[in-house]
Amino acid sequence: MRFFRKKPLKLALPAQGQLLELKDVPDEAFAQKMLGDGYAVDPTDGQIASPIDGTISYIFPTGHAFGVENDDFEILVHIGIDTVELEGKGFSAKKAAGDSVKAGEVVIVADLDVIKQAGKPIITPVIVTPKGERKNIKLDLGAGTVEVD
Questions:
Q1: Which residues form the domain of 44?
Q2: Which residues of the chain, if any, have pLDDT below 70?
Q3: CA dist 103 to 45, 59, 86, Å?
Q4: How far is CA 135 from CA 1, 13, 31, 39, 69, in A?
Q5: Burial of 52: CB neighbours in 10 Å, binned 0-12, 13-18, 19+
Q6: Catalytic residue, candidates 78, 80, 107, 127
Q7: 64 counts as catalytic
Q8: DSSP assignment, residue 84?
Q9: What pLDDT score does 87 carry?
């Protein structure tokens, strides 16, 4: 009997922009990984996409965050910091809970200028909760890739 190690899975970034470690997010809960491990993107584009193929598990009524899951992951994408306070202003959902999505498919369009004008950081944390035995998240900031094994 032969055992094969699972190949690391690559996650798509939810937006164009600079990949960051969670410790660089200007919010204690994310930076200290209180909500889980992951990464963040400082977006240059408001087209916020799913990092994985899966199903939208929820979209917050304010449109500032969404969850997506598949057999391997449960993922939270939180657009900006303290953006729930905008009460939906600047966010437009393109998908709904229960919709199937492919990695890179737009879920929410965020008006980054509206967020910035409200004085909110646009850094977008992505919290990755691996299911099963996949536990290690590896960021390669130089290559702009995220792997989980």
A1: 9-148
A2: 1-9, 130, 132-135, 142-144
A3: 16, 16, 27
A4: 25, 19, 18, 14, 16
A5: buried
A6: 78
A7: no
A8: G
A9: 97
14 touches 52 (CB < 8 A): no
Distance CA(111)–CA(92), nearest Å, equals: 9
**101: how many CB neighbours lie within 10 A of its CB?**
21
Residue with tokens 């304010």: 62
**How high is the pLDDT of residue 2?**
47
Output the pTM of the full model: 0.90
Which CATH number does the domain housing residue 55 bear?
2.70.70.10
Establish if 4 belongs to a structural domain. Answer: no
Q: What's the number of domains the chain is made of?
A: 1
